[in-house]
Amino acid sequence: MEYLIQQLLNALAFGAEYALIALGLAVVFSIMGLVNFAHGEVIAGAAYAVLLFAGLGFGAPLLVIGLAIAAAIIMSVALERVAFRPVRNAPVTTGLLTAFGVSIVLQNLFQLLVSPRPQAFPALNGLNVTWHLGPWAISSLQVMELAAALLAMLALSAFLGRSLLGIAMRAASRDFSTVRLMGIKANRVVAAAFVISGALAGIACVFILARRGGVTPDMGFSLVLKAFVACVIGGFGSLFGAAAGGMLLGFIEVGLLVLLPQEMGGLKDALTYVIVTMILIYRPEGLFGTRRDLGDKEF
Amino acid sequence: MKQDLDTAPAGAVAAPLPWWGRALAGGALAALPVIVIGLIVLMVAPGWVQNLTAMALINLMIVVGLQIYSGNSGIVHLGHSAFVGLGAYGMAILTTPLVMKKLSIPNAPFGLAGVELHWLPGAALALLVVGVIAWISARVIARLSGIAATIVSLAFLMVIHSVFLHWPALFKGNQGFFGIPKLIGLPELLLAACAVILIARLFRESPGGLQLRASAQDQKAADAIGIDSRALRRHAWILSALVCGLAGILFAVFSGTISPRLFFFQQVMLTLAMLILGGMASVSGAVAGAVILSLVLELIRNIESGVTIGGVTTPALLGLSGVALGMVIVLCMALRPQGLLGHREADDFLEKWRVSRTPGRNDRRDENATR
Q: What is the predicted pLDDT for the residue at B359?
């Protein structure tokens, strides 16, 4: 029983992390059809930024959290300006390849400017303590991760449901040109999407830093690939689908960790992808996707 | 319908060739610069240049293999290196001498530790394995829409890479797999590269290839005239995998040592940048991109490892070539998304040049080619 609850919490925490990243991808995709491979480098960039600030003496945990989120937002918006604006109205493939290229450039820049080797970052290790609640030992990080992810999702849905900009964003994901005819500035909507995506990347970055205690140039890439897979299972472009897909991925991973014998643990990622692909055979448009969300114009 | 497709594009050409004639002639034209460069290197260049040229030829084959799927279907494929790796490891496991195997993989499953095949059946069997895995993965990929297919192709790369790493009994894990008999050199690779260029061109000009390109441009219109684009995407995926697998096999018997790292992101982004630079939609573009980037990258690698100018040595700049590759992709997408050659093949340029010299004729093919 204890073990089961422990693993359940594990799965929820993993899932929350994937959901955060997947949401950041889906917000951008649903509005401008950009498959943002550079999202992982936004996470890594924020991590390097706080590493730099910690080196300058700003290493208090709360400050680090704020800095990470701010750095991720700035970086995300800057990338939109520099790299993604020129290809905004181009076919999806062009945007995808641009983002892939940006991701490669940034990963190698981190290597070039900092180091290809992992950099230790212990400032957030204090977040990861074990709480004893009655008979259960619970990792504080997991609880916080879950709470933060839930809060972020609630805030996001409140923003998208209530505020004018949020409503404009949702409308833009259906029909951008009509939204512009209503007098909403396209640049504002797109910038808002990148701000939200950056903020989600920043939150994810904090938790990744707290868990791993280190920074590597490619720290974001494999996570983002998993988040993409989460988006694909959930239905590409659907926000709810992205969050649900992330959670599902968390459960599949923890399930495999529990079920697989120790010596096959390395194959966890491979098997996760295989299972996900099986789901796609039966529902190619994802669990919560419609044909329209896929960016197809045939509906 | 087959008749129409055969004759329509050839209508503007003075002496109409059947599609395969056009493909072979055009392919030969695209392969010509490769042959010339290859022969010059073979005759005059020192050994290390020959080795570099051989690696460039292997990359060229992978780029052309990638073009077969991505160029014709319009779907970005990021998992082709998995097939290169499968080909290479298949060849390594099947043909490495038993003495070497005792050292490297003594506990291989399925009795593979006691297998030592001649290179020909070994290569055939390795290609068969690649083909079977491609066939299975094609069933999944062909069902998905563009972006989802791209992401799943990347996930496929991760799966294969992860299996290479975490099944040490068969693949030797993170360490290099050594002792593969070195059988070929530059001449054989040159021959294989030409063959691969011709195969890609044949597929592109074949009725199936034309239908697939049509469905990439307008899915609805293609559906309406009864094109089975899913089946065609499957065929292109499998053919592309076989070509990449062949490149892997040749790499294994050329270098004698392989490791999982070689068939991962580094290779994916290198070959992808080559294809994008030259132009995804044409085989000549793939060849041009591979040749140009191979030359440029060699230059950058020299800078990367530090150059000495007037007694001052610049520091080693690890990651510079990666930045350059990424920039090639980003700049291409912003400035010339169709690549240097666009949709044109080398013979289209020749044709255009010829037509421009005979006044009073419009080239219909060209108008079709530029979207």
A: 64
